Amino acid sequence: MNISGFEYFSPRSVEEASQLLLEKGKGAFVMAGGTDLLIKIRRKLLKPAVIIGLKGIPGLDKISFNRKQGLTIGATALLSDVAHHPKILRHFPAIAYAAKSTANTQIRNMGTVAGNLCNAAPSADNAPTLLAMGAEVILAGTQGERRLPLDQFFIGPGQTAIEPGEILTAIFVPTPPPHSGVSYQWISARGKVDISAVGVGVMVTMKGKVCSSAKIALGAVAPTPMRARKAEKILSGKVLSSRMIEKAALEASREAKPISDVRASAEYRKQMVAVLTGRALSEARQRAAKG
Amino acid sequence: MKHVITLNVNGDSYRIAVDPWRTLNEVLREDLNLTGTKLGCGSGDCGACTVLVNGKAVSSCLTLAVEVDGKEIMTVEGLAPSGEELHPIQEAFIEKGAVQCGFCTPGMEMAALYLLKQNPHPTEKDIREGLSGNLCRCTGYNKIVDAIRTAAEKIQKK
């Protein structure tokens, strides 16, 4: 097979992993599930000298939740673990749904939410919901730990704010305020085997019939997952009527900067941003009414 | 540097030295001669290489052998260990004509096994969703869905 020539390490702690990463320098890559990394190696897009596997680090796959603080998803927690976790299903249904919407059964049993973010594809299925919910990533290096809003994590296609020697150890999602609702909507040409042509994650927080805050995040329509801030502004402080939802959806469509590729044309993507933003806002409004 | 690992495959234990870049798929097929597991796309899209690792369906083409050191692996050869009596899933595939060229069959059967363990009474939608990571280029999907529904019934009766 055409992948070859790297050394493999399975460190037992984050410190050891981060130390190795620094020591081995530029040719060293961190691997969680490997479902993106190994494909890139096979396609000769990457030629690592060293792979540092994270799956042997005890506790790094932990998912924990408490209402006061929020949800923490460890770096090696599988997409399938997140998709079926009872507390995530109950308190963060859109996060579970986005994980379940990623790739197929086999890949979800190998891949991780953290890996999906670190791979930094504009189409990453887990990014829009987490962006809309104000998630943070926890980055650990030999100098210690820092927290970074996910908003500042994506820099370009395949590029993140991770510094040399740093490892994303967990994703933190604050518990949404009362009377808020979250939704993720996506579309692709052929079910979920295919990568999303467009994905939209939103969170709305209501005060009676008035939307006190709206967050709208779009996937696969810009070099990175992006916020539709003008559309968010339109809704802030307004009654969340169907007409307002439509107005915001059209604004989000104007903000999107998609390209045409094998999965969809730019024009189609723009239209789908409007459709999916509308659907996501409606579902989020319904969920907010229940919460 | 080669890594010495232990693979537990279908109840047999193998201790082998592998290069770190070798996939579970390669080791199963080339070192252990378990060629029931196929290699299709090599990118996790087609499901032909599906095996169970600690009970979970995964793509063996995207799994490094070093990462499954010590784990329980089940391949299609493990479905009917005696070589005489077939597993209900295999019986159902034969009865319903769900095998055409046969290349996708081992992966389909392993994905079906995983699906039926998670969900013993799947609806047609559940079956189609559960198998969305397995492609049949003969496009014999209706009969495969039929076979899995039949297999579920057979397993219930046992």
Task: Give the arrangement of secondary structure elements.
The complex is a heterodimer of chains A (291) and B (158).
Chain A: E1 7-9, H1 14-24, E2 28-31, H2 37-42, E3 50-53, E4 63-66, E5 70-74, H3 79-84, H4 86-91, H5 93-100, H6 105-108, H7 113-118, H8 127-132, E6 136-141, E7 144-149, E8 154-156, E9 159-160, E10 167-174, E11 180-187, E12 198-207, E13 210-219, E14 226-227, H9 229-235, E15 238-239, H10 242-255, H11 266-290
Parallel strand pairs in A: 1-3, 2-3
Antiparallel strand pairs in A: 4-5, 5-10, 6-7, 6-10, 8-9, 11-12, 12-13, 13-14, 13-15
Chain B: E1 3-9, E2 12-18, H1 24-31, E3 50-53, E4 56-59, E5 72-74, H2 88-95, H3 105-118, H4 124-130, H5 141-157
Helix pairs in contact in B: 2-5
Describe this structure in words.
Helices cover 34% and strands 26% of the residues of chain A. With 291 residues, chain A is an alpha+beta fold. Chain A has a 5-stranded antiparallel beta sheet. In chain A, strands 11, 12, 13, 14 and 15 form a 5-stranded antiparallel beta sheet that branches. In chain A, β12 (198-207) and β13 form a beta hairpin. Chain A starts with 6 loop residues before the first strand and ends with a helix. The longest helix of chain B is centred in the C-terminal third of the chain and has 17 residues, at 141-157. Chain B has a 5-stranded mixed beta sheet with strand order 2-1-5-3-4, covered by helices on one side. Chain B is globular. With 158 residues, chain B is of the alpha+beta class. The interface between A and B is medium-sized, with 27 and 30 residues.
Span of the ends, CA to CA of chain A: 52 Å
CATH class of the largest domain in chain A: Alpha Beta
Give the integer mean of the pLDDT values of chain A. Answer: 96
- Annotated CATH homologous superfamily of the largest domain in chain B: Beta-grasp domain
Total helices of chain A: the number is 11
Q: Mind summarizing the main beta sheet of chain A? A: 5 strands, antiparallel
Domain module tally of chain A:
3
Widest sheet: strand ordering of chain B = 2-1-5-3-4
Q: Helical proportion of chain A?
A: 25-40%
**Greatest chain-chain contact:** A-B, 27 and 30 residues
The second-level CATH architecture of the largest domain in chain A is 2-Layer Sandwich
Shape of chain A: globular
The count of β-strands of chain B is 5
Any idea of the CATH class of the largest domain in chain B?
Alpha Beta
List the domain count of chain B as a whole number: 2
